[in-house]
Amino acid sequence: MNIENMKSQMRKGMLEFCVLLQLAKGDAYASEIITKMKEAHLIVMEGTLYPLLTRLKNDGLLCYRWEESPSGPPRKYYSLTQSGREFLFHLESSWHELEKSVNHLLQSHDNQNTEIQ
Amino acid sequence: MNIENMKSQMRKGMLEFCVLLQLAKGDAYASEIITKMKEAHLIVMEGTLYPLLTRLKNDGLLCYRWEESPSGPPRKYYSLTQSGREFLFHLESSWHELEKSVNHLLQSHDNQNTEIQ
DNA sequence: GGATAGTACTTTGTATTGCAAAGTACCGTG
DNA sequence: CACGGTACTTTGCAATACAAAGTACTATCC
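^ Those are the sequences you sent over. The predicted structure of the assembly is below.
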């Protein structure tokens, strides 16, 4: 197990959350989401995102419409449903809890380091 | 997919990091780690932790020694190796990056809400 | 109008891994 | 020596991230 592998592990499970967050900012199609996530330094692969979007759609959190592209094949624009918005609200709480838990562990660790040195 | 399932997804991938953080605070055996993690509101199951500790050991990040228990079977106390400490250092950076990325997404989302209302 | 490049969505196969559940084993107590 | 508590291990399953290959639409170039 290398550091890259572990970083990818850390990204796991955050993906749904981040994708929903992106869509909360506005409708988007898959390739667009990939690009935006990359800009936020969150790498996600095609083979990951497409099935993920389908799962979220099947769970009623997303819906989509087809739109023509100025150049190329038509695009599948996804948008949050009401249920998706509510779900995202709960996820934000979960994220803040997780953040708090991890940073609590981190802080004790840092304190210990300070005491040692 | 329900909220509980999703929260568990969000915990995934954080586990290695949190276990290493726990061990940075002092040697511990599996059941002890489970208890401490639970106190930090991070649930982890036996069937998850034991293989995880074995993986980290096989990767040279951890080592262990047997110690007798005042009551019950002997305990396998795990401790960080030097390599484990270095690894943890990198993981802390990764965590802060992830935290920053997610909170950046969150912030734009909140701003948007503010603008709308 | 056929070949090519670019964009976008889909599918398949593999490996990882979290979890539940069952299993093994050690110890002290009555 | 049976039992309850503690602790570690193993097995089977399901979810899923990813790589890679495939399909399909559009515009451009010759």
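The two ends of chain A are 30 Å apart (CA to CA). Residues 26 and 90 of chain A are 19 Å apart (CA to CA).

Shout if you want it in another format.
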